[in-house]
Amino acid sequence: MPCLPSIQATDKRLKNYKIAIMPGDGIGPEIMQEAVKVLKLVEERNDVTFELMHALFGACAYFEKGEAFPQETKDICDQADAIVKGPIGLSHEESKKIPVDEQPERGALLPMRRRYNTYANYRPVFLPKGLAHFSPLKPQVIGEGIDIIMVRELVGGLYFGEKEVGVNEQGLRYVKETLEYDEAQIRQIMHHAFKLSSGRKKVLHNIHKSNVLKSSVLWNEIMEEVAVEYPDVKVINILVDAVATLLCLKPTQFDVMVMENMFGDILSDQGGGILGSLGLMPSACLGDDKAYYEPSHGSAPDIAGQNIANPYSMIGSIAMMLEYSFGMVDEAANVWAAMQEVFTDGYSTADLSKLDSSVTMISTNEFGDKVVGKLRAMPIV
Ligand code: NAD
Q1: What atom of ligand 1 comes closest to residue 350's alpha carbon?
Q2: What is the whole-number distance in angstroms between the Cα of residue 300 and the centre of ligand 1?
Q3: For residue 368, what are the domain limits?
Q4: 271 with 282, same domain?
Q5: Measured distance CA(33)–CA(163) in Å, rounded
Q6: CA-nearest residue, atom 22 of ligand 1
Q7: Which residue's CA is the nearest one to ligand 1's atom 34?
Q8: Domain tally for the chain?
Q9: What b/e sequence results for 28-55 when a residue is b if at least 16 CB atoms lie within 10 Å of its CB, and e otherwise?
Q10: 84-112 residue pLDDT tens
Q11: How does pLDDT run across 145-158, given as a tens digit for each residue?
Q12: What is the pLDDT of residue 317?
């Protein structure tokens, strides 16, 4: 994975980092265990110490503490230099055991995003040419490889707007949810996207729905205003529905893509689909003062507890933390390279190997161990 420009590096003289570790639900603890193995090796290889502070978050926290984001978890996160979060959530049926407002996204995830104003969500969608066999797309569609970063606005829009439920004058149950953005919110995510694009291919796809949504009209106005400050970046405006198709037909045309909250939620899962698995989707959620790192996917209850989940997304989230929160750009690149080497040696977890007999299927633990082995063998720059 090519390095992203480091925009969030903290003071490099600070070498002792406090990291909140929140394994979460479902496959969370399994993939977090492998990510922590990698983190411990990074600590061993570098002039840093990591103080890992474990905390409950999500459904596990609700069942043990009565709240999905308990005060003691908030205290740990407040103290942390960075937060690493596993996926949270339960299956559709199981989630009915939790009151609606304490269900993991509403009770923990959105409040955490709001608490730390982590408005910029970077979701890399990366598949080199040599791993085209992982993708459901034809090798000629993958071409020289897919290398996209989706930049998703993470604390605005429909997910954070006012909500109202009730019974209307006709006696019918109704719901009203509000999609709201102000220009400052749009401007700050645009600056992230333009800066990222400036350090890459200088082509920025702006995803919108201005033919229907007024919010997209304002979004595009602000985009044009911010674009003036980045004359080297070419902007391509494109409707979100068209993007859904083009991601399948010609994903290689995209480099950096910027979009509002809900569009990003949906299109980034499609990103996982074109790679071959959501297990290949790490992410960074960046605010001006705090950042947290999590896989883009959910807790995968269908495969939890079987030691078959792909920990790439969780280990990749660690690599993003090393780069963005700690400025450890070279070691982050080593972690990405270690994972790619495991794949190119012909190994992968079940999600990526079941359709391809040339790939040797390994467990979650074995994948983590192989990454550790590869990283250990890499020179420290
Ligand atoms: P999901 O992302 O958990 O799973 C979708 C599919 O992808 C499943 O088949 C799953 O097995 C597979 N998958 C996901 N991650 C994988 C990995 N690392 N390795 C291999 N396969 C993987 O989506 P879902 O089933 O719709 O949601 C399950 C729960 O997760 C729900 O409660 C949902 O609300 C929650 N969720 C949480 C987050 C988050 O924590 N940020 C994000 C999305 C969904």
Answers
A1: 20
A2: 4
A3: 1-6+13-123+278-381
A4: no
A5: 37
A6: 279
A7: 89
A8: 2
A9: bebbbbbbbbbbebbeeebebebeebeb
A10: 999 999 999 999 999 998 999 999 999 99
A11: 999 999 999 999 99
A12: 98
